[in-house]
Amino acid sequence: MVSTEGSTGTSQSLERGLAILSSFHSDRALIGVSELSRELRLSRSTAHRYVATLAKLGYLQQDPDSKRYRLGPKVLDLGFSAINSMDVREISAPYLRQLSDETGFTVNLAILDGTDVVYIERCRTAGPAQREIDLNLHVGSRLPAYCTAMGKAILAFVAEEQLEEIIPRIEFVPRGPNTLTSASAFRAELERIRTSGIAVNDEELAYGLRSIAAPIHSHAGEVVAALNLAVHRTMVSMDELIARYGPPVAQTARDISLSLGHRLAPG
Question: Domains of the chain (ranges plus CATH)?
């Protein structure tokens, strides 16, 4: 019988299955077996066997027209189970709602995953201008960290060795009118955030979108998430966003960090 264990004692089959699932993302929803076999350096028959198994288990679905595959509902179940199990989301929810109610703006919570931020909570408002900047975001949405206030708020406070591993992997592609498009400009921005304690997004992700964010820390002092308050450029100037809404955003992040420390600190 052929062993499926790798040289490190891990399961090669599991690694290959997870590699297939990791190949899918929002900009690449459908992938064919031939593409997967080439990219993962598997024979076509081997790739087909893994894909067929994942489809049978509900982790992939085949598109009837193109015969290519997309992620199935079981992956969604896993994602929401992971999000719902996070202490930071449970603890943050009432604070986010209070901040949204007091300001009248949408408030979000995100964590870092690689070079992206992943939304794990949203408190949305229904104003017409707010809908213009909603960008179809929802819990589970991913955005590039480099051009978001929450991403910058987290990256400014991660360990230096982690930051040095992440920055070379960022593709500084223009997304909005004011996107930072170089590593040097990005590093300078992170330094400013370390000094001020807050991060801003002035139409770096998309036209019209402004936001202000602050990091959330664990009881050990590690940055674990960030929250932001999002506005449309017609609602609030950058000066007002920082002066008026920076303090409550920062205070909310401190309150969540304190509550998180009380929940998770060793007894």
Answer: 12-74 (1.10.10.10), 86-264 (3.30.450.40)
